Amino acid sequence: xxxxxxxxxxxxxxxxxxxxxxxxxxxxxxxxxxxxxxxxxxxxxxxxxxxxxxxxxxxxxxxxxxxxxxxxxxxxxxxxxxxxxxxxxxxxxxxx
Length: 96
What we know:
Elements: E1 2-9, E2 14-15, E3 20-25, E4 28-34, E5 40-45, E6 52-59, E7 68-74, E8 78-80, E9 83-86, E10 89-92
Parallel strand pairs: 1-8, 1-9
Antiparallel strand pairs: 1-2, 1-5, 3-4, 3-6, 6-7, 9-10
């Protein structure tokens, strides 16, 4: 099982660079990373984590959002969980 992410600043029409992203299982922080120049974290979690419920916490630079959080249930395979963010709206979806 693996998890990747991508953060796009839709207000500016460009990748969101330097966004800290954390992955929790219950109260335990199991992984973290910072988006690169393309707004991506290619491998937030790899084979060292197993299927189950996880919480992904994004810390974007936004005039309104200080933290965007989603809880996901993952099984075997790869999961891509992007965040689209603008100054006053956001959306998270399961990518491919």
